[in-house]
Design brief:
The protein is about 5% helix and about 40% strand. It has 5 helices and 50 strands.
Length: about 775
C-alpha cells in the first residue's frame, strides 16, 4: 500500500471479548477444538483499519501429570489474565502509545492516537488485577496506509519473532527498520527455524544480516538461525513423604515438572524419618530471563521474592543462555491454620448460608444470606464480598435489594425472603449470583430463582430465571450456577415443584436473557439440591439428590444432547428425611469428584471414563469414625488433591471445624499415625456411627492448637465459632487453602462469616 500524506488523529480500538478463554470474541460451540486464546482486536481509523488476530502462548500441559487429576500452567499463571496491555511504537519515530484494556463480558473499547504509517510494532501482554502475568506476551507488526483495504494482522508467537527482530534492528538503525519487508522477513524466519519453536529463533543472526544490508532482508537464511535451549535443575527440600510439588518456569516453551517425595523410611513401628530433598529438572528452556516457581499445596515455598505474609509460593529469577544449565534450589515449609479467623462479613445481624468461588487472579468471591433468621420465609437478603489476598471488600455488598427492584410480571416487586445463594466467576472476574426469593404477589406466588451479575460498577437488576408460570406456588429453590470456560456462557440449575414433584431444571443465559428451563430429572422422582460443574471441555455435569432415599443421580450435557441419567454408586443409607448434602467438583481432566454427607457419614466417589469408583469413607481414620456434625464441601487444588471440610467434634464433644485432604495415595492420616496398608485401597465402608465409639478419636488433645500438616486438621478457635450447615473450602493457584463458614450454630441471631487461611509456617515436626 502507498503511504498517504494525510494524517489522522487517532485509532479506535474496539475489543469484543466473550469468555471463551483468556482472550476471545468468538461464540464457540461446546465441542470446539479452536484455540482458547485466539481473539480479534479491531482497530478502526477515519481513513484506514486493520484486524488483529491475537493468540497468546499456548497453555503448557504435561501428560505425565494425568495421574494427579490434571495440571497445566494455564490454571496457575495464564489463567489469571483479566486484562491486556496494548503497546504501540513506530520504527522511524519516538512514537509510543499504551493502553490497558480490561476484559469484560460485554466487550471493551479504547482509543489510541497514532498517525497513518508503516511498520508499527504492537505488543499485547496479559495482566491480572495488579501486574503483568509473566510469559503471557505476544508481539506483531502492522501498517495502516489506506482506507481501501482492511488487512488481517496476526499477533502470535511467530509474529513475536518477527517483531523482536525489527525492534533490535530499530535499536541499531531506524532507517533500516523502516525499509524492512516484514512479509519477506517472516518467510525467512519460518525457513530458518524449521520445526523449532518460534521462541528459539536466534534474533541476533537475522538482525546482523538486515543491518548489514541496510534494511534489505537476505534471500539466504543466516548462520545459526536457532538457539539451543538450556535447562534448569535443582532440589526441593522439606516435602513430606508422598506429597507433591510442581515446578515451572514462565518461559513459553518448557513444560512443568512434578516431583513426589519418596516413601518414608520406617525406623520402628512408631517413628518415621523425614524425607531428604527431591531433585527436579526442567528441559527445553529458551535463552532469556525467566522466573521459576514452585507450588506445593499446604506448604510455604521459600524463594527470592515473596510479596506478602499470606503468599505461599515465592519465585526465583534466573537467566538462561543457549545450551546452558542453571541450578536453583528451593525449600518448602509446612503451614498451619491462622490462629484467629478473619471476620469476612462484619455485619450486625445473622450471616449464614455462604457459598464461595475462586477466580483466576486468586481472589475469593463469597455470597451469603443476611438476616434470614433461620427459616423465616419473609426474611433474608443476599450479600457479597471479595477477598483479594489481604482484605475483604466492603462496597457493593447487597446483591438482592437494588434500587431498581426485581423484574416481575406484575411489576409490584414484592420479592423478599432471599436464601440459598450460589456464586460463579467468569474469566473476566465478574461474579454471577443466583438465589431463591419468596413472593406473595397475587399473580406470581411462591419461590422463584433470581439472578444478578456485577457489571464492574453495580449489581445488575435481578432477573427471574425460573418459569414465570404457573401462578400457583412452584417453590423453586436450591440453585447452583457455573460459567463455561470455553465460551463464557452462564448456566444455572435448581429444583422446583412440578405436579407436586420436586424436579431439577437447567437454563442458560444468552444475550442477557435466560432461556426456557429444561427439565432434567424424571417426572416421577422427587429430585432436589442439584450441583452444576462445567469441565475444561465445556461439558456440563449435573448431580442431584433423590428425596426420602439416599440415592444420587447424574446427567451430562455436551451442548448437543443429554446422556442418560446414571445412579451414583454411593453406599445406601436409611431412607427418610435425614441430614444429607451433596457437593461436586470437576478436575482438569474432566473427572467428576463427589462428596456426600448421609446423616453421620461422609462418602467420596469420582467418575472417570464413564466408570465410577467405589465409595470411600472420608470421615474415618484407620477404621475410627470421626463425628459428622454438618454438611461437607470439597475443592480440588491444581495438583488434583481433594480438600474437604466439615464440622466434627473433639474427644470431649466440643464441635470443631475439621479439614482433611486426599492425595493420589488416598486420604491422608494424622501425623504420628502409622498405616500398614495403602490408603488408596479403602476397606469396606464402615457401619455409620452416630456418636464417638469407645475407640478414642485420633486427636492429641482438645486444645485450640492446629494439628500439624499432613492428615486432618482441627481449625484453631473454630470450636468457639461453631460452624453450621455447610463450611466451605477453596484453594488458590499457588497452594493457599482457605476455610469459610458461618458460626450460626453458636449465635444464630448475630452470626458472621469467618475465614481461616492455611498460611502460617509451623515449626512442629514429627
Amino acid at each position: 500500500m502507498k503511504v498517504r500524506n494525510k494524517k489522522i488523529t487517532g485509532l479506535i480500538i474496539a475489543v469484543s471479548v466473550s469468555l471463551a478463554g483468556v482472550l476471545s470474541c468468538q461464540t464457540v460451540p461446546l465441542n470446539t477444538s479452536s484455540s482458547l486464546n485466539q481473539s480479534v482486536l479491531q482497530i478502526n481509523t477515519e481513513s484506514g483499519a486493520i484486524r488483529l488476530h491475537i493468540d497468546l502462548p499456548a497453555p503448557k500441559a504435561y501428560p505425565a501429570l494425568s495421574a494427579y487429576h490434571g495440571f497445566s500452567t494455564q490454571s496457575i499463571e495464564e489463567g489469571r489474565i483479566n486484562r491486556i496491555k496494548v503497546n504501540i511504537t513506530n520504527v522511524v519515530s519516538d512514537f509510543v502509545a499504551e493502553k490497558i484494556i480490561p476484559i469484560t463480558q460485554g466487550g471493551m473499547t479504547a482509543t489510541i492516537k497514532v498517525p497513518l504509517g508503516k511498520n508499527y510494532l504492537i505488543s499485547v501482554e496479559g495482566m491480572d488485577d495488579l501486574e503483568a502475568v509473566q510469559g503471557a506476551m505476544v508481539k506483531g507488526v502492522f501498517s495502516v496506509e489506506s482506507s481501501e483495504v482492511t488487512p488481517d494482522v496476526d499477533v502470535n508467537p511467530l509474529t513475536t519473532a518477527v517483531a523482536t527482530v525489527l525492534e533490535q534492528v530499530k535499536a541499531r538503525d531506524a532507517a533500516a527498520a523502516a525499509a524492512v519487508d516484514t512479509t519477506k522477513l517472516m518467510n525467512l524466519i519460518v525457513e530458518g527455524k524449521s520445526a523449532a519453536n518460534p521462541f528459539l529463533v536466534n534474533h541476533a543472526a537475522f538482525v546482523d544480516a538486515i543491518v548489514l544490508g541496510k534494511g534489505k532482508v537476505p534471500s539466504i537464511v543466516p548462520a545459526n538461525p536457532v538457539l539451543r535451549p538450556g535447562n534448569i535443575t535443582g532440589a526441593i527440600k522439606g516435602l513430606k513423604a508422598g506429597d507433591a510439588a510442581v515446578v515451572f518456569s514462565n518461559d513459553p516453551v518448557s513444560s512443568p515438572v512434578i516431583v513426589v517425595a519418596p516413601p518414608q523410611v520406617t525406623a520402628s513401628s512408631t517413628t518415621t524419618t523425614t524425607t531428604s530433598s527431591v531433585d527436579y529438572r526442567i528441559d527445553n528452556v529458551p535463552p532469556g530471563k525467566w522466573t521459576v516457581r514452585v507450588v506445593a499445596s499446604g506448604y510455604r515455598v521459600e524463594g527470592d521474592t515473596i510479596t506478602s505474609l499470606n503468599e505461599l509460593s515465592a519465585a526465583k529469577a534466573t537467566t538462561i543462555t543457549t545450551n546452558s544449565q542453571t541450578t536453583l534450589d528451593f525449600e518448602v515449609k509446612q503451614v498451619g491454620w491462622s490462629a484467629t479467623p478473619i471476620n469476612a462479613s462484619g455485619n450486625i445481624g445473622s450471616s449464614d448460608q455462604p457459598d464461595a468461588e475462586m477466580d483466576g487472579s486468586d481472589s475469593i468471591h463469597v455470597v451469603w444470606r443476611q438476616d434470614g433468621f433461620q427459616e423465616e420465609k419473609e426474611s433474608g437478603s443476599i450479600f457479597y464480598s471479595r477477598y483479594n489476598g489481604k482484605t475483604w471488600s466492603t462496597d457493593n455488598r447487597n446483591v438482592s435489594t437494588q434500587p431498581s427492584g426485581f423484574v416481575s410480571v406484575s411489576g409490584s416487586d414484592k420479592f423478599r425472603g432471599a436464601r440459598n445463594p450460589a456464586v460463579a466467576v467468569g474469566v473476566d472476574r465478574s461474579p454471577h449470583v443466583v438465589w431463591s426469593a419468596n413472593s406473595d404477589n397475587t399473580d406470581f406466588r411462591g419461590r422463584r430463582i433470581v439472578y444478578s451479575r456485577f457489571d464492574g460498577v453495580n449489581w445488575t437488576k435481578p432477573l427471574i430465571i425460573s418459569g414465570l408460570s404457573p401462578t400457583s406456588d412452584v417453590e423453586a429453590d436450591n440453585p447452583d450456577i457455573a460459567v463455561n470456560p470455553i465460551n463464557g456462557q452462564v448456566y444455572a440449575v435448581w429444583s422446583q415443584l412440578l405436579n407436586s414433584v420436586k424436579t431439577v431444571y437447567l437454563s442458560q443465559l444468552q444475550n442477557g436473557k435466560w432461556l426456557e428451563p429444561i427439565q432434567l430429572s424424571a417426572a416421577t422422582t422427587q429430585s432436589y439440591r442439584p450441583k452444576l460443574n462445567i469441565g475444561t471441555d465445556g461439558r456440563l455435569h449435573i448431580v442431584w439428590e433423590v428425596e426420602d432415599t439416599s440415592r444420587v443421580q447424574y446427567i451430562s450435557y455436551d451442548g448437543k444432547e443429554f446422556q442418560a441419567i446414571e445412579e451414583v454408586p454411593f453406599n445406601q443409607g436409611a431412607a427418610g428425611n435425614l441430614p444429607r448434602s451433596l457437593d461436586a467438583r470437576v478436575d482438569l481432566l474432566n473427572r467428576l469428584h463427589l462428596i456426600r454427607r448421609d446423616q453421620d457419614t461422609i462418602q467420596y466417589v469420582f467418575r472417570s471414563n464413564k466408570t465410577w469408583s467405589r465409595s470411600e469413607p472420608a470421615h474415618e481414620v484407620n477404621g475410627v469414625t470421626l463425628p459428622v456434625l454438618s454438611h461437607a464441601t470439597l475443592f480440588l487444588d491444581n495438583i488434583g488433591n481433594v480438600n474437604l471440610v466439615w464440622a466434627s467434634s473433639l474427644n470431649d464433644g466440643t464441635p470443631v471445624l475439621r479439614y482433611r485432604r486426599r492425595t493420589n495415595e488416598g486420604w491422608e492420616l494424622p501425623q504420628g499415625t502409622v498405616s500398614t496398608t495403602p490408603s488408596a485401597t479403602p476397606s469396606a465402608f464402615a457401619t455409620p456411627t452416630p456418636d464417638p465409639t469407645a475407640t478414642p478419636v485420633p486427636v492429641a488433645s482438645a486444645s485450640a492448637t492446629a494439628t500439624p500438616f499432613q492428615g486432618f486438621d482441627n481449625l484453631p478457635t473454630s470450636q468457639n465459632k461453631v460452624p453450621a450447615d455447610k463450611p466451605l473450602v477453596v484453594v488458590d493457584s499457588r497452594g493457599r487453602i482457605s476455610a469459610i463458614w458461618s458460626n450460626s450454630a453458636s449465635d444464630p441471631v448475630n452470626s458472621d462469616i469467618y475465614h481461616s487461611l492455611k498460611a502460617t509456617v509451623t515449626t512442629t515436626t514429627n
